[in-house]
Structures are given as C-alpha cells and as structure tokens.
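Hey L., structure's done. Input below.
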Amino acid sequence: MHKPETRTSCQAKLLVYLDKNENNWKVRKVVTEYNHELAPVRMVHLIASHRELNEVAKAQIDGMHVHGITTSKILGYMAGVAGGYSLLGFLKKDAYNYADKARRAKLVDGDANAALVYLEEKAGLDPMSVARYSLTAYERLVNSIWADDASRSDYQYFDNVLAFDSTYKKNKYKRPVVIFSSVNNHKQTKIFGFGLLMDESVSLYRWMLENLLEVMCRKKPLVVVTDRDKAMIKVVKEVLSEATHWLCAWHVETNVTFNVKDENLKVLFKRWLYSEMEIAAFKADWEDALE
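Output:
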C-alpha cells in the first residue's frame, strides 16, 4: 500500500547565508505564508528537525544506568518531571538508540572486554561483589575470577570443604571455566565463585586459587576436592598445604565406568565408593572381587 501524498508545495522558508567578510550569518529571504495546518504543540517533538536528545538528557540517562535503573523506568521518570512524554523533546526510540549505542561503545573491544565491563559494573553496584582479572601485554584477557555477596557470605559458613573443578569447556573459546563450590548442612550445592582460565597450567591455577583466598578473607578450607588434573593437584598442595586433598568421587566413578567392562565390578565399585564401610569390610569385598 502506497503512503498518502502529504506534500503541499509550501513556499514558507527562511534562507540564511554566511557573510565571510563579516564572519556572521545573515538572513537572505523570509517567506512566512504557508498553505497547510501547522503541527500541534503536542506533536512537534515528532518532527526530525525539532527532536534532540541533549547533553543534559544523556547525562541523566547515563547516571541512572550506572545505578542499575532500566531505560524504561528512566524514561518514565523523565516524562513525569517534564509533564509528559510529548514534552521530553525526543522520542522513546531516541533514548533507546542512545542507550544501545553507549552499551556498544563499551563492548567495542570484543567479548572479553564485554565480560569485564559487565563484572565491573556489577561490582560497582554491590560493594561485596568482587571481580578480578589479569591481562597480557597486548591487553588480552588471561584469567578472571568473580564472586558476589551471597557467594562470599556462604563461604564463611560452609568453607570446610572446597570443590575445585575446571572440567567445563563448553564455551566457544574452549577455555576452562573453574567453579568453586561446596554443600551446606542440608546437602544443597553452594557456589563460591567462578573463574575463567587461559589454560590449565600451574601458574594460572595458582593465580586463581590465591585470588580466591584473598576474596574470601584468607580463610582456608580443611578439605579440597579436585579431579585428576596434575597441575591443579600440585597447586592445591602448594597453596593449601594444610588441607586434606581428595579426588572427586564423580570423576573416579566416571573413569571406572568408562574403562571397566565387567558389570558386576561396576556395581561393586559404586558401593565401595559411596557407602560407609569399615576398612576390614572393604578389604574382604576387594579380595572376593579379585577372586
């Protein structure tokens, strides 16, 4: 469907020119007669030449965004102060476009920078939240660690056992994602923090674990549970030398399930792994299994 013709060949105009000799703008021609109805006051803000998101409005939007207020609520507040959306001097779309442009400007350096900007903003809103990271000489992200107020609070109560797992590599960069966790007295999982590593080297694991301890006020766990990763085990023994180190039962079970073909032995192994047995009972079971 074609749009209706709205042009009326109106000759109303104001022509100005720059007088270079006097370095001033001067009026050349004025025609005040027009052949159509003028836009009502409540509609003036819809005319492109009259729309402007000025610096005051931009500063107000930026300031309220910093404190976590959404764009829609910001516009509602500004419209209330102005006396209505029609008196803002710009459209809602202009404000959303500006907010999107400002957000994209922060993300200009890519996904890593986007993540850091997000974490730093969260930490700025919550003084108990912590975001730490390290960069290469070329400003590329090496490591990062994040813990919010709930995680840090939970750690102070349930820090006896710390599970340290970096087997999650499902992100598109194939980087190890470290999850620090434990369980509370109701056997509910508690997450103490997250980390992202460049690789699974000793030096990077050490950075991660040392920063976790600093974030958690240097409070050390009594038991640390890890998978079989040699670099991780080495760092645990260095940084948490007084803690007892255990291998994660789930990883042990998965390894046995994958490599052992005898179904009866698999059933026995799960019983040995998870049930509460006396040493003598286990040894007797083990001898029977060998036979």
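Residues 67 and 230 are 44 Å apart (CA to CA). DSSP finds ten helices and nine strands in the chain.

-- N.
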